[in-house]
Amino acid sequence: MFSNQSKIVAHIGFTALILIMLAAISIAYIQITNSQSHIDQLVQNQQIKINLVTTIHTTVQGRQEELIQIQHAQDPFERDQAFQRFTELASEHLMAREYLSTLLTEETEKIIFDKIIELTAKAAFTHRQLIDLIRADEFDKAHDILVGKSFPVHNTLLNLTRKFLEHEHQLSAHEIDLARNKFHNTIGLLLLMFVLAVFACIFIAIAVLRTIKHAENALFAQATLQSINDAVITTDASGKIIYTNGKALSLLDTNSSIVIGQQLTDALKHQNNCLIPNITDSAEKIIPNACLFGETKLKPANLSEKDVEYTVSPIRDKDNKVQGSVLAFRDITDRKMIQDELHK
Predict the structure, then answer these.
(1) By the 8 A CB rule, do 298 and 325 touch?
(2) Which helix (H) or strand (E) holds 310?
(3) Is the Cβ–Cβ distance between 241 and 278 less than 8 Å?
(4) φ, ψ for residue 47, nearest 5 deg
(5) Best CA proximity match to 181, nearest among 31, 33, 39, 29
(6) Residues forming beta bridges with residue 310, ordered by sequence position
(7) How far is Cα 82 from Cα 151, in angstroms, rounded to an integer?
(8) C-beta of residue 280 within 8 angstroms of C-beta of residue 237
(9) Each residue of 124-151: pLDDT tens digit?
(10) Is there a contact between 294 and 270 (Cβ–Cβ < 8 Å)?
(11) H-helix or E-strand containing 145?
């Protein structure tokens, strides 16, 4: 069975694992979704721009055809119908042009668009001249303006809109390639993050298992020390008490909250000048005049004096450096009394 400390460590560790994996999955989902949305938005915007440029191109071409129809129509009714279609195409051209102007972000797009605006204004001037001449029945002059001014402007405008279309297709392909490369880079980065998260989870899992193992070992060691008949006190390298078992507390007539943190020499009353040894890193050995084993007397404040025998052992780390000491002692008062009686 796990101790409460081990259970807490396990819960915290595995909760951290779950949180790391959830965070990695969430980041991956958000990044992939954002990248895909960005690509979709690029495709949509470019398609809208291509459609608008196509509309501008077709309306320019359509208006040129309607002008020819207006100029050659013999029937006034047919001429009015052609003029109405010309006006509708002009309105459609204007709306597409205004909408397109709000979507342009690239410099070349803006340069071509400005040229289209300039040519459209020039074409509009010749259109008004042409229509005024047709309404005045001056068909020969209208024909001269149509051929000499209107056709060249429209042809230039048509070539420019074709160029605009080609540029938009190229720009669309380029931006989509960039977005896809960014998407692939994002996928690569997320895979790297996921791998790092997996390694982090493995590291945490190993750390948690080691901590649990250490906690269980410590619990087992503590249970063992509590169950043995000898009194046991553990100190750190400076001689401060860091652990006592129940037998030691009983012999000292005290409780752990009092002795833990005290110097060993302050907690124990001894005689015979046989010091309980303090072990230090610098000495790397028992200090001079210290005893590894022996007998002494203890005189707790509220109890009678007791004869004890003790042994002291150093606690060393993996580098053989002294980290503290273990004092084990037992009450031999009864035995000493028997020995004294036998010697009489």
Answers:
(1) no
(2) strand 306-316
(3) no
(4) -65, -40
(5) 39
(6) 294, 329
(7) 17
(8) yes
(9) 888 888 888 887 888 788 888 888 888 8
(10) no
(11) helix 139-145
